[in-house]
Amino acid sequence: MPSLLSKLQKINTTTTMNKNYFEIKRAGINTTFQDQGRSNLYHIGIPFSGAMDNRNFQISNKLVGNETNSPVIEFAYQGPLLKYFGDDIKCAIAGDVKFIIRKNDNDIEGNCYQSFTLENGDEIDIITTNKSVYGYLAISGEFNLEYQWSSCSINTKANIGSNNGKRIEDTQKIYISKINKDLNDKKLNYINTKIEKIRVIKGTNFNYFSEEGKNIFFDKEFVVSKLSDRMGMRLDGPKIENIVDTNIKSEGLIKGVIQVPADGNPIIMLSDHGTIGGYPKIGVVISADYDKLVQLTPGSKVKFQEVELSSAETLFKLYDLETQNLISQI
Fold first, then answer.
1. Which residues, in sequence order, are CB contacts of 216 under 8 Å at separation 6+?
2. 198-328 has which CATH code?
3. Cβ count within 10 A of residue 127
4. What does the domain layout of the chain look like in residue ranges?
5. What does pLDDT average to in each consecutive run of 10 residues of the chain (330 residues)?
6. Quick one: residue 284, left, alpha or beta (phi over 0 = left, psi -120 to 50 = alpha)?
7. Backbone φ and ψ of 135, nearest 5°
8. Alpha-carbon dihedral of residues 188, 150, 11, 22, nearest 10 degrees?
9. pLDDT at 9
10. Which H, E and C letters describe the chain, residue by residue?
11. What is the pLDDT of residue 6?
12. pLDDT for res 17
């Protein structure tokens, strides 16, 4: 049986945890907990998941003094309205986000890439992600979350991750198990930029498509469809002709792979993608362009540019180096 001391320690830990929390007044459109995701689980049908925009995810954590893989709240389009209860805590929001900090009924316009302090009773109203899709809210501490396969990332399609694999909901309370105190304010001068062309390498079924279809893929514009989410991005545009077979035996998929079903409209697999699929694959988005790809809103125009594998590897190393340089400035 547990000793009296262990019981008292458990009660004290629970009391401390319950003392600091957010109450969700409005959950937003697609609000989840994310970290860097799960690796090496494709063989059992589990994708990486994790933060869609890895650069902004890492920056948000560094702004509040966390390890860059600490869990954050990811939101899309309209974010949550949260009311805070507890000891003073630092927060930061990364992305192209419009938000308000509400203190004693006074509205203060928030600034992205700049930490700020929340006191007991303050609110954060994340109004919109402007002309992008995803934003990130980090706190100087630890959310009280359950981990599954070494990650708290939520995949709502499979009900995997913390919060029972579900989106954050209205009236829910988000408890904080630890607060890092005595942190200085931090700021990063950073502006999100749009990408003109999405660079890709050839897919494994590239030769399934006619020469005209290949030319269309690289020369014509496509438009991001409203039928896009964390699982995949559908594109509308000129049809890409398949001259071999519009279906293949199901094969493994990876994040960023571009499938072309029978209707000729490409689908880009994103972070919560299925791990196998039976549509021919015309290309794969390079890792260096993935963060900017996922921030393209419905109606955005997309053009593809072919690069070789060696160039894709170099471009990723440069993008990662740039990300680490930004983090080092905080």
1. 238, 239, 240, 241
2. 2.40.100.10
3. 14
4. 13-179, 198-328
5. 47 58 97 96 93 98 96 98 98 98 95 98 97 97 96 96 97 96 92 93 98 98 96 98 95 96 97 96 98 97 97 98 97
6. beta
7. -135, 170
8. 40
9. 45
10. CCCHHHHHHHHHHHHHHHHCEEEEEECCCCCEEECCCCCCCHHHCCCCCCCCCHHHHHHHHHHCCCCCCCCEEEEECCCCEEEEECCCEEEEEECCCEEEEEECCEEEECCCCECEEECCCCEEEEEECCCCCEEEEEECEEECCCCECCECCCECCCCECCHHHCCCCCCCEEEEEEECCCCCCCECCCCCCCCCCEEEEECCCHHHECHHHHHHHHHCCEEEEEEECCCEEEEECCCCCECCCCCCCCEECCCCEEECCCCCCCEEECCCCCCEECCCEEEEECHHHHHHHHCCCCCCEECEEECCHHHHHHHHHHHHHHHHHHHHCC
11. 46
12. 54
Tokens 């049986």 correspond to 1
